[in-house]
């Protein structure tokens, strides 16, 4: 890969990106451009010549120039890179070019890369007539195992790969059939029976049956999502296409809980995959299946035998390229459109581009570590932080993707708190650890919070950790910045916030409040009225907020940019486009 970087670097700097034009260069000049030794220059040029990327006529004598002709354009090299590299590390290429000031000085190089990478373009493995879409993403996927998903990106991807027994219709506020076409509860409220559709294939061709459903919920007991099956005692298969759930207590809201992405149906025994393999390249029943997945690229292919409507686009390529985000400027792209950029602050709508956005997608919040004595016993310190942070000013200072101040989790309403003058005079000399995971808005947030705290005599040490280590390392922090993500069923999202083992709120509560939340869970699942269930959770979160244990800050919004020739665009409740709905206008999508 480094040789390819060297080629593009030398090609751009010396030939001004003009292929097949002879250029005179000395070994010393090449050494300075590539920042390597002259001995290494000989090795590099030899390898380029072997690959037929260059031709050269060597100068006679030391210091005499060599005539080099670059035979491959940037487009040629990008095609070569994608065909030869299993990792397709375009992000590494952009990082390399940025580090050497090539992107700043040669805008056309970036334009070429973006045009070649994204939008509708033919993949080398595609058959005639197939359509594909290449999309930039700006962070990698932690896990594609449904039981592990907490962030918007992973939840969205799970929804493309899996199905649940039932789904929730936000327009009607009703649970609707999906894998299960009918369900009923007995008089005791402890036994639910679900009838499964026949002929639903997994991505590997195996047909779904009751044993897969049974395996799905048995294995949840050993995952962070075990709160879903807290009172589940046993399951009985009734033939191959019906299953009974037996609970220790009456469970009224079971169909609502089954709408959670974490309850997606997985194949029995993970279809002979290991847990690690399944988290990277899982097998589900959804409209798309994983073709390949590594750090830099997730490629999806259409599930031809999907039991609902077949998706229109044959392949989706998701390029994980954090470094390219700041370069996305549609005005500079003069030829092929990028079609869809899922995360953007760009408001440009020139040349057929449109913006779509959706608000109240998630809520960023601060959580005190109530398992530490010094935090639990210092109510005034916790209160002071709540008083001094002006949420509205924070949003104005930092901007997108911050949407509106919020007071609570369950209703994303504007924050009407009055602006405070500091009246809590408390000196706290110890330095507090404020932690979050490595996401650009999170890092901006904690820097702003530190600045505000410094003004009032609260000193913070900032720690940013990888997301994979976040929930474990957060136990060492004094304050943690985390995120609550919305779901179609609001009460299920709140249950996940209070009970998931991957929820910061759940992990940092003290024993007393943990016992309260567990008791409320038992009350909730037996409550018939959904409005009453929400009210019960309101009371719980109000208690936590009023005691300055947790502090909701703001809701987020998502803005996407897409070309008018990409149809079917609508943002889900988590702010991303369901891939199965996308299609191209005929003049772009047909031969």
TrEMBL record:
Domain (Solute-binding protein family): residue spans on this chain: 174-498
One MF annotation (Gene Ontology) recorded for this entry: DNA binding
UniProt superkingdom: Bacteria
Keyword DNA-binding attributed: yes
Keywords recorded for this protein, A-Z: DNA-binding
Pfam families, sorted: SBP_bac_5, SgrR_N
Ranges of residues in domain Transcriptional regulator SgrR N-terminal HTH: 3-77
A GO BP annotation: peptide transport
Alphabetical list of InterPro entries matching this protein: SBP_5, SBP_5_dom, SgrR_HTH_N, WH_DNA-bd_sf
Protein name (database record): SgrR family transcriptional regulator
Organism of derivation: Ornithinibacillus hominis
């Amino acid at each position: 890969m480094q040789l390819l970087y060297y080629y593009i670097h030398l090609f751009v700097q010396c030939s001004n990106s003009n292929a097949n034009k002879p250029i005179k260069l000395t070994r010393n000049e090449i050494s300075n451009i590539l920042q390597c030794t002259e001995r290494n220059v000989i090795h590099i040029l030899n390898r380029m010549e072997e690959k037929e990327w260059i031709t050269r006529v060597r100068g006679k004598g030391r210091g005499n120039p060599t005539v080099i002709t670059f035979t491959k354009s940037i487009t040629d090299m990008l095609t070569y890179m994608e065909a030869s590299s299993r990792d397709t590390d375009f992000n590494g290429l952009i990082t390399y070019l940025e580090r050497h000031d090539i992107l700043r000085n040669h805008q056309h190089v970036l334009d070429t890369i973006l045009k070649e990478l994204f939008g509708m373009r033919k993949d080398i493995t595609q058959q005639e007539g197939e359509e594909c879409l290449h999309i930039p993403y700006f962070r990698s996927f932690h896990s594609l195992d449904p039981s592990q998903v907490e962030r918007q990106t992973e939840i969205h991807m799970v929804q493309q790969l899996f199905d649940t027994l039932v789904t929730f219709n936000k327009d009607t506020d009703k649970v609707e059939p999906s894998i299960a076409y009918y369900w009923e509860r007995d008089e005791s409220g402890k036994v639910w029976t679900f009838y499964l559709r026949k002929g639903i294939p997994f991505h590997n061709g195996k047909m779904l049956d009751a044993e897969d459903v049974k395996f799905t919920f048995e294995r949840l007991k050993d995952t962070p999502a075990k709160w879903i099956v807290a009172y589940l005692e046993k399951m009985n298969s009734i033939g191959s296409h019906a299953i009974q759930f037996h609970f220790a207590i009456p469970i009224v809201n079971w169909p609502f809980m089954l709408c959670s992405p974490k309850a997606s149906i997985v194949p029995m025994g993970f279809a002979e995959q290991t847990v690690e393999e399944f988290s990277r390249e899982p097998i589900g029943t959804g409209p798309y299946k994983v073709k390949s997945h590594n750090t830099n690229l997730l490629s999806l292919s259409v599930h031809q035998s999907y039991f609902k409507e077949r998706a229109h686009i044959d392949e989706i390529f998701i390029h994980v390229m954090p470094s390219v985000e700041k370069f996305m400027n549609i005005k500079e792209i003069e030829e092929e459109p990028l079609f869809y950029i899922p995360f953007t602050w760009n408001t440009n709508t020139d040349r057929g581009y449109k913006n779509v956005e959706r608000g109240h997608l998630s809520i960023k919040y601060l959580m005190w570590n109530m398992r530490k004595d010094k935090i639990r016993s210092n109510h005034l310190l916790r209160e002071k932080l709540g008083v001094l942070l002006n949420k509205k000013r924070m949003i104005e200072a930092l901007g997108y993707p911050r949407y509106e101040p919020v007071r609570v989790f369950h209703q994303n309403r504007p924050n009407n708190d009055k602006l405070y003058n500091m009246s809590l005079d408390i000196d706290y000399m110890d330095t507090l650890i404020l932690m979050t995971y490595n996401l650009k808005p999170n890092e901006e947030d904690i820097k702003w919070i530190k600045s505000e705290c410094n003004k009032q005599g609260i000193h913070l040490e900032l720690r940013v950790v990888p997301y994979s280590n976040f929930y474990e390392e957060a136990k060492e922090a004094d304050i943690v910045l985390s995120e609550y993500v919305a779901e179609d069923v609001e009460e299920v999202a709140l249950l996940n916030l209070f009970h998931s083992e991957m929820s910061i709120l759940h992990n940092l509560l003290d024993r007393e409040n943990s016992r309260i939340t567990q008791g409320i869970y038992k009350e909730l699942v037996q409550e018939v009225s959904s409005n009453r269930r929400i009210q019960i959770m309101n009371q719980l979160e109000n208690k936590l907020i009023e005691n300055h244990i947790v502090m909701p800050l703001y809701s987020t919004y998502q803005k996407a940019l897409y070309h008018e020739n990409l149809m079917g665009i609508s943002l889900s409740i988590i702010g991303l486009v369901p891939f199965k709905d996308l299609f191209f206008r005929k003049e772009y999508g047909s031969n």
